[in-house]
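Rather than argue in generalities, we have chosen a single entry, letters for residues, whole numbers for local backbone shapes, without further comment.
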Amino acid sequence: MKEIRLNKSMSYRTYPHRCEPGSLDFTVREYSLNGESTSEVDGDRLIDVTEYEGWETLSLELEVTIPEGLLGKVFPEFGEIPGMLAVTVHCRDTYLRDRLVLRRDPISSGTYSKTWEFNAQEVTGSIDLRPLLLRTTDAEDSGAYATDAGVFVADGERWRVELNDDSGEGEDLFDIRGTEFSSKRESNPASRFPAKDRLYYLDLESDAEIPVLWLNEDHEEVVPLLQSPEGQYEKLTSELAWNQVMTPVWTRLITIAATQYDSDDEEWPLDWQGAVFDKLHDAFYEDHSPEKAAERLQEELSESIEIATKRIDDAVQALLDPAEYYTKHVRTLSDK
């Protein structure tokens, strides 16, 4: 039986391909602030630096192990395995998404480690770290194995770093993956993926319970900037690009969640829809529960599109705060 929760801890039961969730051994061995003496980690997959104020850089010593026998369970290939081992980071408060690649093409069993350094200007509240093993190339349909580049085939336990007392609530609402839209349409003209000139695709058709935001890797200069920006200028540019993408994505998620809400049911039609209103109900109407906010927005969508879409736009701007990121970008250009 499938069980997926997107507004709580991620939980998976079934997949359309061979997948080994929780099989990667992931740990943060040490951390340091401002490049000073390192500290060992005491908590259970938790690092708490909330007592330290005024730090500028945070360094994490990451280590991920691919156990013997795992690759044969999730890849049909023999010899050189087209895989990538990475750790992703998500800061909900600043909407930072980044990825540190530990090893790729070919991938093999073993232990890999790297240091990841964060600047205090990039993160606040808390950050979540998740190890992933992904395919890096498309393959012919085998019926059992993952065949799309960018699809994850294994992960491990998440770690959280608490930075201050303003940490956010909830988990990711959707997965973010990458693939070439052109190759999808070449292999299947009836593919659900849009044309190769499109930048992204919010996939709600494959499995309505798991929204997936696909980034089009045909755009060889843009997508790497979104996934793995390097340097302060690239990171600021990446923030602007993410705002550009996430504005219509959030608008669509909100509209669908409100439209499909049924006040007569005790539960949300889909868990991610409840997560949307858990996060934004105060931005729509003060002193409204998530359920009441969804019901009222649904009424406004049917009565006045102008009022409802304005309310949605205001909520999305409050969430993403595009003016702040444009201001940071302009100031950086002025300093050059």
